[in-house]
Amino acid sequence: MKRKTRQKVVVLGAGFGGLRACQALADSNVEITVVDRQNHHLFQPLLYQVATAGLSATEVAQPVRAILAGQRNVSVVLDEVVGLDLAAKKVQLKEQLVPYDYLIIALGGVTSYFGHSEWEQYAPGLKSLDDAIKIRQRALLAFEKAEVSTSREEQKRLMTMVIVGGGPTGVELAGAFAELSRHVLRSEFRHIDPAQAHVILVEAGPRLLSHLPSELSESATRQLEALGVEVLTSTPVVSISEARVEVEGRSLNAETIVWAAGVGANSLTRSLDVPLDRAGRLVVEPGLFLAEHPEVFAVGDIASVKDQHGKPVPGVSPAAMQMANHVAAIIHRETEEGVDVPARRRFEYWDKGTMATIGRSAAVAKMGSLEFSGLPAWIAWLGVHLLFLVGFRNKIAVFLQWVYSYVTFRRGARVVIHSGTASDNKGKS
Amino acid sequence: MKRKTRQKVVVLGAGFGGLRACQALADSNVEITVVDRQNHHLFQPLLYQVATAGLSATEVAQPVRAILAGQRNVSVVLDEVVGLDLAAKKVQLKEQLVPYDYLIIALGGVTSYFGHSEWEQYAPGLKSLDDAIKIRQRALLAFEKAEVSTSREEQKRLMTMVIVGGGPTGVELAGAFAELSRHVLRSEFRHIDPAQAHVILVEAGPRLLSHLPSELSESATRQLEALGVEVLTSTPVVSISEARVEVEGRSLNAETIVWAAGVGANSLTRSLDVPLDRAGRLVVEPGLFLAEHPEVFAVGDIASVKDQHGKPVPGVSPAAMQMANHVAAIIHRETEEGVDVPARRRFEYWDKGTMATIGRSAAVAKMGSLEFSGLPAWIAWLGVHLLFLVGFRNKIAVFLQWVYSYVTFRRGARVVIHSGTASDNKGKS
Fold this sequence. Notes:
The structure is a homodimer. The first copy, chain A, is of the alpha/beta class. Chain A contains ten helices and 25 strands.
């Protein structure tokens, strides 16, 4: 086999796309550098469980170094991307300048407030472990404050949670918060009844889970309502301020507000002189590379591309991994066999199905033409997520955690690490 | 049985002493309020494992509310004690004033720098989850910085850890850091060899673990040295500044410095007009109450008392729990049977033994007249700690975690939640 000199592949981001790209190049004669500003790969589909005290932070994250330890052609760098010089083929990190022959941009998405970045301070998004832990602390401390509050109105506000956005993350958060208050915390307080907590899910569009068939949206709504969640559809948010969400004709007072409505691209894309879509994602060729810079690829949530049927590829982890495999195959062929850009194939997306969990035995799922809801969907969801969880330890620990939560209705991760005091009001004894 | 009106028992602190006091009063006709500024009970003997990335924060902590959920005569209040009015029998919390008939002070100890509080910023202690997570992040990020550093001298400093204090916590930290660098991180870096990391344990006294017989101190030193730890005894610290510990005749440059040398009493005691010992602990009668205020008890690390043999009761969790049982028995008798203060018995301490773990298969233990070291001590240590771990879930999860770490030499909790960037220097590629 003919071997060219060792090409440098730089991968930006160690999410599902970036990590898979590294792994898929394990047997290629390339020198890979993967850069992430976090030391861990995050299993984002379960992040909502950290926010709702079902799992601990370390159960949904693994050090990138540990995952790639056995792969000798990869260096892991903990650093942040500051800029890209596409002409000079160099990545500027905070601490060093890294040249590349091939670049794979897999930086993922960020929470988008559709031009209302001032809402972020009142309604955090859920993208990182830090976000999840902050939301968990806020929600748990709200019950503590309510327990010592002497004002009915204040207690009501403290025990109200508003989730903005009826996509999978919003649905999962709403269901998990409802279960937390109705089952997990039930018998632990003396002055409040956590089961009276009020979870409101606000969606601007006409139905939840708009990427699924409408029967599944309806099923999800029914399952959420059975858990006591108030579902408001066709209800755009007008404004958000401290502990308050204004929607048309109604003002929602809530101590805990979570924004699960919008995903935008990493802001780095705007600094590049290349085509972007409306969300700021990189518009790539069907082969997943930039038209003017064929050595630069984009995969995952930061890439905007249509599949073989002309439909936009969705921002989900299986899509990111499939894209990464595609790009790795191109790089492998070109470095090993010396073929050139015109030989690159187009990316074809294989939709394995979509699902969202709502709670204990409650979920909706679509796989090909099959549609499930309730317990069968929940079991499918459980299996698929365990299967995909990165790292042996996490799989076992998470599985036991789930079995335990299921059997006992308790949750193991209800710990506030940076604790404040409980209340804003005085006088109760 | 004669029943008096329901007495109010206020318990300050939900550590081993406070929690046990609540539980031991489960069948008494009293109204208990337990106050802690954290929402969780912390299994402190395993906290060093959180600092060294062996366990996650939620594995060594359980919500106080969850532990006491089934006990109807307890209210849990998340708040901070601001002051005590012993004459008026009231506790001032940040958010409310709580009256009591009986008070159990179980606030535990704090890290003491022997008058050098300015050292704290450079050499954090290990008392809370927050402390442990900060130490873990610092140590893990040090290796990341070393990986991209181009200066040999800087790499050496980054890969050096100094632990001050040769008691059980210091010994356990030193052993766990040595194993982390020599085994766990070994194959994950490309530019540094983590096995070259340098762990230095500094002790002012002539030997480690001074509460154990000298043969066990020697054994601990040998076991630590076998792991590559440099043990410096009879070496008092002269000063500590940023990344530097000065000892007599030598300057130790280390990115990670941990203070495990001193425990003092909670500063609240100094605001009271009652006898204190030199460390600021409350000097109590042999029955564990204040001479001038027999309705006020102190248990655990905040109490200074001699046992039936005239020896000071040590600041360990079994002692705190035994004291709590003693106090609960007194309160139970007085409230149920109407006996009075002169009938109170003295506290008798039953020493169940002492142990310290050093690493995988390495430990020292003393139980009665039996002394162990190496594997038998390690197995004993493992068993005793699992036995005492609070909460079913944690026991199972921690056990699996340990089995997994033991079999694979990996650690599951190596996640930096609030990540910075990797290096202070430029230029490497």
